[in-house]
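Worked Example 4.2. Consider the chain below.
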Amino acid sequence: MEMENSTFLTEFVLSGLTHRQELWLLLFLVFLVIYLLTIVWNLGLIALIWKDPHLHIPMYIFLGNLAFVDTCLSSSVTPKMLVDFRHESRTISYSQCMTQFFSFVIWVTAECFLLAAMAYDRYVAICSPLLYPVIVTNTRCICLIALSYIGGFIHALIHEVLLFRLTFCNSNRIHLFYCDIMPLLKISCSDASINYLMVFVFAGLIQLVTIGTVITSYTLVLFTILQAKSMKSVRKAFSTCGAHLLSVSLYYGTLFIMYVLPTSQQAGDPDMVDSLFYTVLIPVLNPVIYSLRNKQVLESLRKTLKKK
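Applying the procedure from the previous section yields the following structure tokens:
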């Protein structure tokens, strides 16, 4: 469904995960199950944290907001992907595409800042345990969470405004299963050099700041652990930080490959597997990663189930 070069596009066509129609029903069922698990597990974790007063501390407030962001991130992409498995056209209007992209960037960016804030929280808890209640108060925790959402909104708004200055008239086919900036820039018939520059600058800057915070925090945590004489303290520290480190590695790794490594306009489209990994799979893995390694969450879950 290609438009003439002189015609301004009012809709796009998403390439989807595969053109093999015999796989569409199977993929629909697989990703429907994954999406339902994402919603149930993340909202269940939020409800558990909300209901148990013992979990009303910064560590779990951060975790509850991470679950909320993961739910929103998956919901900005997966429902449209599921619909497209049941329709051959796979079209999306210009306004729907811009809305999906705006929502997607908010949650992706907010998650970057939240993961950095969670790393800082663990650093203070392990390196300065006596000062932790003074440094990381619930109020300060809520401020960091609010700044994460505000940062996501501003980042999305910048790219959205810059996208609106472009026209799309060369092709209407987006080589991805959702609207993202790099595939959109590739089909623009306007000069998108400033857009490419802003993607590289902001993606690089956000990752530099947030990954820098994570690396610095855990380097200091490692030094503290190495100085600890008690093996119990060492095991507790690794147990506390292990889940977060795994989540951070999976999330930032895919983002770095997709948005920071491309250095020119001729760089290839974002890798389909990477996109699928951090938009669909990480949101369903995070509640499992954090919950299974957290004794307080598991204990709270057991108490809740016993009451029923």
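The chain has a mean pLDDT of 85. The longest helix spans residues 193-227. Compare this with Example 4.1 before moving on.
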